[in-house]
Write a structure and sequence with these properties.
about 270 residues, single chain, alpha/beta, Rossmann fold
């Protein structure tokens, strides 16, 4: 990956594939590696994927003080500037979907199509993870036992059936071991998520929008995907039955097919 100056920070990014650019915005505690090769490879035949690490993650600049979702949206816009990309397809998942919402509201001219996955908009009717899930994650992350932290993260981010797939678990574990995200960075990004609320502003998004969500999502329940899709004019909702938060891990080929069809429809 390559580090590039973006405003007051530097971001670590990677470009691969051929075709129109697709900016991919990762979620809380994830890295550019967390997209997983099956999903990325399925996209790269038709799109040039641009993945990057948020401030505080990987080789990107250290996180100094507080950060907001809007600031991270400006980081995303700044990365497009640094790469001399005027307009791109944008995919944001989880916290990255929140960032993508703010990017779409602030810089709609920079986005060709918008895809929001396993995310939420805040406000009445939305829901974060259940207290027991939040407690299990927090206890694991602060336990000092990295193996436990990775395992718990895996189990709550995918469906119970997929969690039992040992090959998938091995891939997830290897990625998590290669690039860790500091607990204090996760805590600060989580604080930004709790403050996020675009619920009253989503109606201003006039971009071709696809929303994807797993019905068994325990991190951000599926009601959030329905709510986001309902509030963005003309948005299309695609649900993955019995799939958890990381739908692009459980259904990489179908996720890529939907993403490519959405992008291709507005080429």
């Amino acid at each position: 990956m390559t580090v590039v100056p973006v405003g007051e920070v530097e971001l670590d990014y990677e470009r691969a594939g051929a075709g129109p650019p697709l900016l991919m915005i990762m979620g809380l505690s994830g890295t550019a590696l967390t997209w997983g090769e099956p999903f990325l490879q399925a996209l790269r035949g038709e799109l040039e994927t641009i993945v990057y690490d948020h401030r505080g993650v990987g080789a990107s600049s250290r996180l100094e003080g507080q950060v907001t979702i809007r600031q991270m949206a400006e980081d995303a816009a700044g990365l497009l500037d640094a790469l001399e990309i005027d307009c791109a397809h944008v995919l944001g998942i989880s916290m990255g979907g929140m960032i993508a919402q703010e990017l779409a509201l602030a810089h709609p001219e920079r986005i060709h199509t918008l895809t929001l996955g396993c995310t939420y908009c805040g406000g009445p009717g939305s829901a974060l993870m259940a207290p027991e899930i939040a407690r299990a994650l927090a206890e694991a992350r602060t336990s000092g036992d990295r193996e436990r932290a990775i395992r718990v993260s895996w189990e709550v981010n995918v469906s119970s059936q997929f969690a039992a797939d040992e090959q998938a678990w091995a891939r997830f574990h290897e990625i998590a071991m290669r690039r860790a995200v500091a607990v204090k960075v996760i805590a600060e990004h989580a604080r930004a998520i709790y403050e996020h609320d675009t619920s009253a502003r989503l109606g201003a998004i006039a971009l071709p929008t696809l929303v994807m969500h797993g019905t068994a999502d325990e991190i951000l329940p599926v009601q959030n995907g329905r709510m986001v899709a309902e509030r963005i004019p003309g948005a299309r909702l695609e649900l993955f039955d019995d799939v958890g938060h990381l739908f692009f891990w459980e259904r990489p080929q179908r996720s890529a097919e939907l993403m490519l069809a959405h992008a291709g429809a507005y080429a």
